[in-house]
Amino acid sequence: MATFKQDQMMEIGGTETQWRSICTIGGVFTILALIGILLDVVIGSITGGNLSTLPPTAIARFAQFQKFPLLGLYNLDLLNLINQLLLIPTYFALYAAHRKTGNAFAQLALIIFLVGTSIFITTNTALPMLELSNKYAGATSEAQKILLASAGEAMLARGAHGSLGVFIGFLIPNIAGLTMSLAMLSGKVFNKITSYLGIMGSAFLMLYIVLVTFAPMIKDMATAFAMPGGLLSIAWMILYAIRLFQLGQSVHEKKSDLT
Predict the structure, then answer these.
(1) HSE on the CB side for 14, CA within 13 Å?
(2) How many CB atoms lie within 10 A of CB 115?
(3) With b meaning 16 or more CB within 10 Å and e meaning fewer, what string describes 95-110?
(4) What distance in Å separates the CA atoms of residue 117 and residue 110, rounded to the nearest whole number?
(5) Using 50, 70 and 90 to split pLDDT, how confident is the model at 8?
(6) What angle do CA 200, 203, 209 make, to 5 degrees?
(7) pLDDT, tens digit, 9 for 90 and up, residues 230-246
(8) How many helices (H) and strands (E) would you count in the chain?
(9) pTM to 2 decimals?
């Protein structure tokens, strides 16, 4: 009987260790995502970050892809897509951190984020546009070029930054961020400063997304909301990454106590 209880306790301890290790993994992926976000900020600063200066037609996009393929991919949010994928383990880790609190918001945030990421992936047209660009460059007849240009215009309608096609894919992950911040506020695993930063950052970014999509005449003004939203979100990510590492560190402390 004693052996059975001991085995049961070891199994519970092993499961707890796995959950806490997920927190460490989430912290690592948060750092990787932060690097990607900072890279996005740097590239945006170098290129000007003005949406009105992006190539307006598919043919102009094809020309950009041929001259500066990485810039063409960036302008169609490939870097944002990579950052989004990097945050999947992070959100699972944030859910893991809240699992004992009975906080349904954390689970809801994870589900919303996964749905939003799936939509983001399906609406992103960076790689298909690169492929169309290569085919356009190698086209030998005017009919082929017209066909490829039409396909490119359809891709832009579905995946150009600031278009209705990508609105849901950008909005839902930010709703997930807001929901996770609310989970942090009530779950008491993270401090209130962390949760408030997430709430404000997500709110500013959602406002930016709405304005840049439905009020194209004030895209430059909308950028004014993107900057504070981005900075607040970066601060939020830094703070919760530190906390995730702290939660994961307790695994090693417990292991050392057992040995």
Answers:
(1) 6
(2) 16
(3) bbbbeeeebebbebbb
(4) 10
(5) very low
(6) 140
(7) 999 999 999 999 999 99
(8) 10, 0
(9) 0.85
